[in-house]
Amino acid sequence: MYRFAEDLESVPWEELCDLYEKTDLGQRNPTELQQAFSQSSHVVLVYQDAQIVGGGRAISDGVYYSGIFDIAVLPEHQGKGLGREIMNRLLAKLNKQFIVLTTTVGKEEFYGKLGFRKHKTAMAIYPAHKQKSAKLYLED
Question: Which of 25, 47, 93, 139 has the fewest CB atoms within 10 Å, i.e. is most exposed?
Answer without folding.
Answer: 139
